[in-house]
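Protein modeling request. Please complete all fields; requests missing the sequence field cannot be processed.
Requester role: graduate student
Desired output: 3D structure, token encoding
Chains: 1
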Amino acid sequence: MSIKKTNAARALDVLGVVYEMATYTVDEEDLSAVHAAKMLGVNAEIVFKTLVARDESGHLLVACIPAECEIDFKALAREAKVKRCELVAVKELSGLTGYMRGGCSPLAMKKRYATFMDSAILNHEKVYVSAGLRGVQLYLSPKALVEACSAHCVPITKG
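Delivered output (159 residues):
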């Protein structure tokens, strides 16, 4: 069965980035990246979740962190050179990014936002990140993902 291309996958195609797509069964009760890792049969360390935050001026920030980690908003604010930031409401996500909770990709959002990836991403040969649909992941080189997103690689998780 072939997997339908998502906007995120098409964005990688345009850039000539090599990737694979993987699917898993979605559980509407558990849309977590940890669940995605379990369903894919991989270590949660290599699955990165995408979070969208807003700073005090209303600008959006995109953050990708390992599935099991918690974001450090103070660290994200410091790296973004803003006073503070907090997650956007789930109901706003689709209108701002074009993606829904559980299927938010750092690639091919409605607009280009400042993107930050936890520096742990560079510890892996390949990582999974949402392809922009629930149950579909992209598997690619972290360096290629960072470049495709014009992301800053910085420590933004707690602990």
